[in-house]
Amino acid sequence: MTVTTIRAERVNGSRPGRAAARVARRQARRAAAMVALTAGGLSALVAAQYRTTFADSIDAGALRALAENPAVRILFGAPLALDDPGGFTVWRTGTPVLVMCGLWALLAATRLTRGEEDAGHWDLLLSGTLRPVDLVRRCAATLCLAAAVIATGVVTGLVVTGTDPTGALLHALCVFGATVAFASVGLLAAQLLPSRAAAAGLASAVLGASLLLRMLADGVPALAWTAWLTPFGLAARVAPYAHNRIEPLPVLAVLAIAPTAAALVIARRRDLGGAPITLSDTRPARTRLLGSVHGFAVRRALAPTTGWGAGIAVYFLLIGALISSILEFFAENPRFAELAATAGFGGLNSATGFAAAIFALLAIPTGLYAATRVAALTADEKARRWTALHALPLSRYRSAGTEIAVTAAGLAVLLLTAALAMWAGAVLTGAPLSLSDAIAGAANVSPVALLSLGAAALALGWLPEAVGAVGAVPVVGGFLLDVITQSTDAPAWVGEISPFAHLAAVPDTAPDWRASLTLTAIAIVAAMIGLYGYTRRDLRG
Description:
This protein is mainly alpha-helical. The protein has 20 helices and no strands.
């Protein structure tokens, strides 16, 4: 939120608070529109696909078996109203859409508040009549407006495809409530912690814990009550198109309002740049890994890599433990395996085929990890943390190249973590998945994750204000494009644009070495071009 923009608004006769709100909306509107189009488009696509692919294809007995299978309930939620296009759409896309919206909301909340404060953009602005609590309040209003736009996109996509308007509206309200809830968590974390990175990490951990609670609530009857503690669980309890309950919505509203209220209270009492949670300034200096550029890069990457690794390990351990149950379900209901193959997830009736389908999704979190690590470089540059370092006889090639290399090593650690976790889960339940198969399946997606690293490095040199977004394109955009082309009659060449279309189903089949090497080469070239641009552009500040 630049002071120059605010001054321009004041010259035009607007009050500073309204000017600050306009700037916040400008910063959020493009990404919010993209999330709205993605969520609405995905919902409309699945609802339309249901009518042509799944309608009248599943009998009552198969639906009952699906609803009773604990593994299916843990992974995807309780299957309700699958004989209705809207109910099927909510079951298949509800959790992914809520995760996507919630993740964007909490990242946007920390960026608009603590991120702008860290960058020094609030210093001169708050020297006038505005207070920090005023800016936080306007950021909260902006995020509520963005959530409304996203929810509108979802309800529009469902209604235009002919689903029941009541169910569509209730599902959209769940999307709105969950998005606002995680935006509120981001706002609160930004007031509690002294840096944007720490705030985003805490808010992301809350999102992950909320998703885990939903999985436990749906899979373990004794823990069903925990669904009322998480936006994901409350959205499931609304059961759009099935029961259409409204009782969970007020609870969801409380989860959305309470963190924002707490954030406003803290913002009213803290100093600019301060935070209630701070590190002690009396502890001994920690100089480990500060003796070299490589050591410093490793030190910077340790905490985020550990956090991402912990989340990936928990998820893939759970997936591995559920393989036996999933295989048993598909053996008893082969029609579901056929329908999954129609939707682009073939081979789910074998351990290696199921592992291949799940490992393909691993490219998304690992690619986002790479994009966020490179984005941290631009954030530090914008906050002038690299100024003193660049004043030394140290080339930008070496500094940025080292960070990129350490990020690539972090990718390898995350992939190995996922492989070990899935194999361990399979061993616990006796599923026929070997360690070598698990490692091969995880390593197979590394070229796609490296594409995100290369795209982020390319943006670092030529489009530094959009590093995170550009880095996410290969994995998020590529995955959505792959799903859309497999679910529609799109031309074959359109599907070939997605890097996911070039991944072999490893470990169910042999790797496609030619495609893997090509994608890796593209990632390396993109990173080199990005480093070239980085050494020749001015530093941001």
